[in-house]
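Page 37, continued from 36.
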């Protein structure tokens, strides 16, 4: 009789309670891990996009400093048509490819350049436009 009362007075967790706690904890941890995985993917995507933007800005700066578009460093002409003229650079900004399309602008001697930065890694591209004389 004394043993029976001892068992009833003991306090602790049952196996079912422990399993329930583990299941709840697992659900919470899985929801947080998916949040961190998505955050890591977004960070990687933003890093690639920022790199493409920086390359495009560098090309824009180069175009603004030269007097003749045909003297753009490390770019080769890939089109035969006079309007638009296309230039390409596959070596300077590896693993990115840069294309510059130059065409007549809306007025007078104003020219429009479209700069496209693409990458083989993610098959995405970033495009920006500028006007210059």
């Amino acid at each position: 009789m004394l043993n029976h009362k001892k068992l009833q007075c003991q306090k602790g967790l049952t196996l079912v309670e422990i399993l329930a706690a583990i299941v709840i904890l697992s659900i919470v941890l899985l929801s947080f891990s998916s949040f961190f995985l998505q955050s890591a993917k977004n960070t990687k995507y933003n890093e690639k996009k920022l790199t493409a933007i920086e390359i495009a800005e560098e090309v824009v700066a180069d175009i603004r400093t030269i007097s003749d578009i045909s003297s753009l460093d490390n770019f080769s002409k890939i089109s035969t048509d006079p309007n638009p003229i296309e230039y390409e650079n596959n070596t300077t900004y590896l693993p990115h490819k840069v294309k510059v399309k130059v065409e007549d602008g809306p007025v007078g001697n104003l020219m429009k350049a479209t700069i496209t930065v693409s990458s083989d890694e993610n098959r995405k591209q970033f495009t920006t436009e500028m006007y210059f004389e």
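The first helix runs from residue 2 to 9. Flag for discussion at group meeting. The mean pLDDT is 86.
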